[in-house]
Amino acid sequence: MTERILDVVPPRAEPASPPATPAPPVRYPRVRLRWAITALLVVVACVAPFQLAPFRVFQLTMVLVYALALLGLNLLVGHAGQISLGHGAFFAIGAYTSAVMLEHWDAPYLLTLPAAMLVTFGVGFGLGVPALRLRGLYLALVTMTIAIFLVPLLKRFESVTGGSMGLTLSRPRPPAWTGLAEDQWLYFLALAVTAACGVAVWCLLRSRVGRALHALRDNETAAEVMGVRLSRYKTLAFAWSAMLAGAAGAVNTWVIAFVSPDSFTATLSIMLLAGIVVGGLGSTFGPLLGGAFVLFVPTLAQGVNQAAPGVVFGVLLILIMYVAPTGLAGLAGRAGRFAIQLRRKK
């Protein structure tokens, strides 16, 4: 009888084990490496103007100016997938907006920066309308036409733009309380504007807008099916990109203290596009590396062969793209990943 009862009574269930505690998220080494590089660059950027000669400080300032222009071009080409050969025109519009306000209106130079950004935002928004129906080489030709057309237009309105002679201005003087020299003050102005715009773009790309731009770049049809409004984001991408190029033009006016139509030919637009491709499309540090390329490589080519600097420049460009097909930022990223793998093996 006892055996029958034992056969009927089910065995006692084992107590359930407590749920496993999820492992804490492991930070990816690449993220830590990127933040370490950023912190190092910030330290170097703050110390450099006190350790270098004035001419070297001027060169670093121009690298920051070009990096700011390439930041906008990277937003348009690298993240939104739209090609532009007219960013030299936006650069010129921002420069002339600042110069005209300083020369004819005697405006404070800091006030010319938001004015230049606002004007170029409007121009870029208007240029974004043709981008709704054009893409690829057709869009590149339309934007390049703007860069070609702008130079004779600036020469025509001589009473405002100074014509072919341009406008000569005075540089912003540093406040007495800073204790900085003129070149150092201009450097920190350029650094502050570039850093602020870089942080704004970084936050933008990590928002819903950034995801929409990436979807637009990867596949327009799929992005539209997912609910991305192509017309809205294409025009906004052009407007934001032009606005950053206009900001770079305004800072360039402060640094150079001179504007002339011949300084903003179509060659500048081509150089900017080449700079962002060499720096690294869609990368974080691509605009900074591209700015250094735009400033130093033409000078290097001129020093190697004064008779044909364009040939030397072309050869250097081909060599860089052969060694780093994803840009200098991609080459640095591969080197960093290789260093991390070596560290893990040890």
Automatic annotation (TrEMBL):
<dbReference type="GO" id="GO:0015658">
    <property type="term" value="F:branched-chain amino acid transmembrane transporter activity"/>
</dbReference>
<dbReference type="InterPro" id="IPR001851">
    <property type="entry name" value="ABC_transp_permease"/>
</dbReference>
<protein>
    <submittedName>
        <fullName>Amino acid/amide ABC transporter membrane protein 2, HAAT family</fullName>
    </submittedName>
</protein>
<feature type="transmembrane region" description="Helical">
    <location>
        <begin position="84"/>
        <end position="102"/>
    </location>
</feature>
<dbReference type="GO" id="GO:0005886">
    <property type="term" value="C:plasma membrane"/>
</dbReference>
<feature type="transmembrane region" description="Helical">
    <location>
        <begin position="58"/>
        <end position="77"/>
    </location>
</feature>
<feature type="transmembrane region" description="Helical">
    <location>
        <begin position="236"/>
        <end position="257"/>
    </location>
</feature>
<dbReference type="InterPro" id="IPR043428">
    <property type="entry name" value="LivM-like"/>
</dbReference>
<feature type="transmembrane region" description="Helical">
    <location>
        <begin position="136"/>
        <end position="154"/>
    </location>
</feature>
<feature type="transmembrane region" description="Helical">
    <location>
        <begin position="311"/>
        <end position="336"/>
    </location>
</feature>
<feature type="compositionally biased region" description="Pro residues">
    <location>
        <begin position="12"/>
        <end position="21"/>
    </location>
</feature>
<feature type="transmembrane region" description="Helical">
    <location>
        <begin position="33"/>
        <end position="52"/>
    </location>
</feature>
<keyword id="KW-0472">Membrane</keyword>
<keyword id="KW-1133">Transmembrane helix</keyword>
<keyword id="KW-1003">Cell membrane</keyword>
<feature type="transmembrane region" description="Helical">
    <location>
        <begin position="185"/>
        <end position="205"/>
    </location>
</feature>
<dbReference type="Pfam" id="PF02653">
    <property type="entry name" value="BPD_transp_2"/>
</dbReference>
<feature type="transmembrane region" description="Helical">
    <location>
        <begin position="263"/>
        <end position="281"/>
    </location>
</feature>
<keyword id="KW-0812">Transmembrane</keyword>
<feature type="transmembrane region" description="Helical">
    <location>
        <begin position="108"/>
        <end position="129"/>
    </location>
</feature>
<feature type="region of interest" description="Disordered">
    <location>
        <begin position="1"/>
        <end position="21"/>
    </location>
</feature>
